[in-house]
From TrEMBL:
Top-level division of the source organism's lineage: Eukaryota
Residue intervals of the Rab-GAP TBC domain: 325-491
Designated name of the protein: TBC1 domain family member 9-like
Lineage: Eukaryota, Metazoa, Hemichordata, Enteropneusta, Harrimaniidae
Domain EF-hand: 669-704
Region (Disordered), start-end ranges: 298-318
SMART domains: GRAM, TBC
Alphabetical UniProt keywords: GTPase activation, Repeat
Cited InterPro entries: EF-hand-dom_pair (IPR011992), EF_hand_dom (IPR002048), GRAM (IPR004182), PH-like_dom_sf (IPR011993), Rab-GAP-TBC_dom (IPR000195), Rab-GAP_TBC_sf (IPR035969), TCB1D9/TCB1D9B_PH-GRAM1 (IPR036014)
SUPFAM superfamilies the record matches: EF-hand, Ypt/Rab-GAP domain of gyp1p
Length: 746
């Protein structure tokens, strides 16, 4: 085809001239159409450089010029010969009449561009820009190399080397929504690697003599090293974000969908490749938004005037004012929608209402209790993936002391969804992640104390109660609200630096403690006696307080001041990076626990050995993850169900597994049997089956004895597996199915 003339400096590098005249060259790519070392060498170079140009081209050059111009390329020799003949018949005589060679070149360029313009006008197809064409080409190569389905979307791709053994293999890393892929072609040998983001347990940038400027990707099976990136920082950030999405998907599909700063599943499904992947733009924007959010959180807080000395001024804090202004009437609408509705969340809220600051007069009357009920219920209605979690009542109670109901509601939104993400859910994942962060910080800042605390197993015990309630449950609330104020003022870093200061202030006592009970008592005494001399309300100790002395252990202002002096250099950006590392570890640990629980509950009912059942679980999990991400009708799992019942796939995914694994997945009627088996298992008619049901049917077909298999076959030919449409089939399929299945019962 004719192409827009582009300058070529080295015309003979890797090309062979087959025809020539004073103004044009017809060339063939070396190695094309043949074999041997040359073909392997050229193929390797094209793969590494991601070029692979068409094997034929025509160049324009004037006799006294050293610059060549590409005017035509082709995949087929017949087409390139046709263009060559046209040039000789229609252009050569005209070029000979030019006295100035520059004029001759300008004529050729204008002529070719005119041909291209006329061709585009005839087809009426808009010409894509170069970046779009390149990205589409990369997407096609990625799909071809890895056989990715159309619904899977490529986000971006990068040139790099993959260390396989002791030798690096230069190639391309492809980052898609669900997979990390690597492809290399060297000296006739292809190398492919596919890692699902949900299988990654650790992601780290490193810079060593052996692996300079490299990225380490760890799974349960092995470590993978990638190096020689052109844009290492951009690549790693993109990998971090995609791995984060995968961890959210593993935790809860509903929570994954509710992250409104991310592209939704429906958006991702329908997007075609753009100039730069629209998914990459979304992820880049999300990263910038998070950075700006943290900066704005701190700066906007610092701009305000502090009007109260013993509590937070809530709405001029983390976006509360903006949310209230942009969502007028939203809180009242939630109250109206949830009025009279009962759920697990409302039952739990009612149970905890009278345990929320019972020592405070505001919550010793129905007025305060009713306000607390409305705020908690409204939030549970807004975010059913969280609903209600213990500790939310304590935090909300304190917010209501210093803010209106609507203001308290928006502050609760900020805490649950932005400042302390994933804290308040059934698995308190965010708190577990921050436990790991706190352990790492203690090891860095207080190494001697860390060893002692680690031996006592104390860090996990204290950090969970401290962080979940932002110290409100372990410290007099008139003192804890000052810490809460700093928390809104400077972000999540505050809870870590306060916790480090508490440990440092009690370092000598803790080092002398004989056991964890003694250490907990020492910390409890210290925290319950943190005083606030500026408080306007009298001191009210917690009903669960172990002791309260007349002499305060420390003034809260002094505690805060010392934490900033010693640990104030700790930034929110550092916390976010540490949270990411811990998130991979915590989520994969939860996933391992879930796997063990599921296998333990299913194993007694099937005849598969441990390895076979694990393989079956992994295949089912793979289909479930795909189903949860791409399915239009996927429903979030109910956390109250057993773990095996939370693992579900739809009919399409079940059919895929049935045809691939079942000995009955053969012949022209295998698809009908798969559909009937699904209907048999789908007793609640929710269009999904769980892992235990899947294991049962596979066990009957693969491991069952003859009576079990006959019974299963019989059930597949009776309602509910058999439906009226099956009986109206134009061909007598039933005898044929029995005939096909008969060989499995011999």
């Amino acid at each position: 085809m004719w192409v827009k003339p582009e300058e070529v400096l080295l015309a003979n590098a890797l090309w062979v001239t087959e025809r020539a005249n004073p103004f044009f060259l017809l060339q063939r790519r070396k190695g094309h159409g043949g074999g041997g070392l040359t073909s392997l060498l050229v193929g390797t170079i094209d793969t590494v450089l991601d070029t692979k140009p068409p094997p034929y081209r025509i160049l324009h050059q004037t006799p006294n010029s050293e610059v060549f111009w590409t005017v035509s390329t082709s995949l087929h020799k017949r087409e390139i010969l046709h263009h060559w003949e046209w040039l000789e018949q229609n252009v050569m005589q005209i070029l000979g009449a030019f006295e100035d060679e520059d004029d001759a070149t300008e004529f050729v360029k204008c002529k070719i561009e005119s041909i291209i313009a006329n061709s585009v006008a005839k087809t009426e197809e808009p010409k894509e820009d170069e970046d779009t064409r390149i990205f589409k080409s990369a997407t096609q190569k990625w799909r071809r190399h890895f056989r990715m389905p159309e619904e899977e979307k490529l986000v971006n791709y990068y040139s790099c080397s993959y260390w396989k053994g002791k030798m690096p293999r230069q190639g391309w890393m492809y980052l898609s929504v669900n997979h990390l892929c690597f492809y290399s072609f060297l000296m006739g040998t292809e190398a492919r690697l596919v890692i699902r983001w949900t299988d990654i347990t650790h992601l780290e940038r490193s810079n060593s003599m052996i692996f300079p400027e490299s990225i380490k990707v760890s799974t349960r099976e092995k470590d993978h090293y990638f190096a020689m990136f052109i844009h290492p920082y951009e690549t790693f950030n993109m990998m971090e974000q995609l791995a984060n999405l995968a961890m959210k998907q593993l935790l809860s599909e509903e929570g994954f969908e509710e992250d409104r700063s991310l592209p939704s599943r429906s958006d991702i499904r329908t997007r075609a490749p753009k100039k730069i992947s629209s998914l990459k733009r979304d992820l880049d924007a999300r990263a910038r938004s998070e950075t700006y959010r943290i900066a704005d959180l701190c700066q906007s807080s610092r701009r305000r005037e502090r009007n109260q000395s013993d509590g937070p001024l809530p709405v001029a804090l983390p976006g509360g004012l903006n949310h209230m202004a942009t969502h007028p009437g939203y809180y009242l609408s939630l109250i109206e929608q949830s009025l009279g509705k009962e759920s697990i969340a409302t039952d739990e809220i009612e149970r905890d209402l009278h345990r929320s600051l019972p020592e405070h007069p505001a919550f010793q009357s129905e007025l305060g209790i009713a306000a607390l009920r409305r705020v908690l219920t409204a939030y549970a209605w807004r975010n059913p993936s969280i609903g209600y979690c213990q500790a939310m009542n304590i935090v909300t109670s304190v917010l209501l002391l210093y803010a209106s109901e609507e203001e308290a509601f928006w502050l609760l939104v900020a805490i649950c969804e932005r400042l302390l993400p994933d804290y308040y859910n059934t698995r308190v994942v965010g708190a577990l992640i921050d436990q790991g962060v706190f352990e790492a910080l203690t090891k860095t800042y207080l190494p001697d104390l860390f060893d002692r605390m680690d031996n006592l197993g104390l860090l996990n015990m204290v950090s969970l109660s401290w962080f979940l309630t932002i110290f409100l449950s372990v410290m007099p609330f008139e003192s804890a609200v000052n810490i809460m104020d700093c928390f809104f003022y400077d972000g999540a870093k505050v809870i870590f630096q306060i916790a480090l200061e508490i440990l440092d202030a009690n370092k000598d006592k803790l080092l002398e403690c004989a056991d964890d009970g003694e250490a907990m008592t020492a910390l409890g005494d210290y925290l319950e006696n943190v005083a606030n001399k500026d408080a306007t309300l009298p001191h009210m100790p917690h009903t669960s307080a172990m002791s309260y002395g007349e002499v305060p252990s420390v003034e809260v202002s002094q505690l805060i001041r010392e934490s900033y002096i010693k640990f104030g250099n700790l930034g929110n950006e550092t916390i976010d990076k540490m949270r990411f590392k811990q998130r991979l570890k915590v989520v994969q640990g939860l996933e391992d626990t879930a796997r063990r629980n599921v296998l333990r509950s299913v194993a007694p009912d099937v005849n598969f050995n441990q390895k076979e059942l694990e393989d079956l679980y992994n295949l089912f999990k793979e289909e479930q993850l795909t189903n949860s991400f791409w399915s239009q009708n996927f429903q979030p799992m109910d956390p109250s169900l057993p773990m095996y019942a939370q693992m579900r796939i739809d009919q399409e995914k079940f059919k895929t597994l049935f045809l691939a694994l079942s000995p009955w997945g053969l012949g022209v009627y295998a698809g009908q049997l798969a559909n009937r088996a699904f209907r048999l298992l789908d007793e609640d008619h929710d269009s999904n089956i769980n892992f235990k049901e899947f294991a049962f049917v596979m066990n009957s077909m693969c491991k069952g004895d003859l009576p079990d298999r006959l019974r299963m076959l019989y059930l597949l030919h009776m309602p509910p597996a058999l439906i009226p449409e099956d009986l109206e089939s134009p061909s007598p399929i039933e005898p044929k199915i029995f005939e096909q299945m008969g060989k499995f019962f011999i």
